[in-house]
Amino acid sequence: MDAEILRDLDRSHLWHPYAAASPAVAAHPVVRAEGVRLTLADGRELVDGMSSWWAAIHGYAHPRLDAAVHDQLGRMAHVMFGGLTHEPAARLARRLALMTGLPKVFLADSGSVAVEVAIKMAIQCTGRSRLLTVKGGYHGDTFGAMSVCDPVNGMHHLFTGVLPAHVFADRPPADYGLRPGVPGEPAPDEAYLRHLDEMVARYAGELAAIIVEPVVQGAGGMRFYHPAYLRRLRELADEHGLLLIADEIATGFGRSGELFGCDHAGVRPDIMCVGKALTGGYLTMAATLCTAEVAECIGVLMHGPTFMGNPLAAAVADASLTLLEERPWREEVKRIEAALAEGLAAAAGAPGVREVRVLGAIGVIETVEPLDVARVQEVVMAHGAWLRPFGRLLYTMPPYATGPDDLAVITEAMNAAAATLSP
Question: Is 306 annotated as ligand-binding?
Answer without folding.
Answer: yes
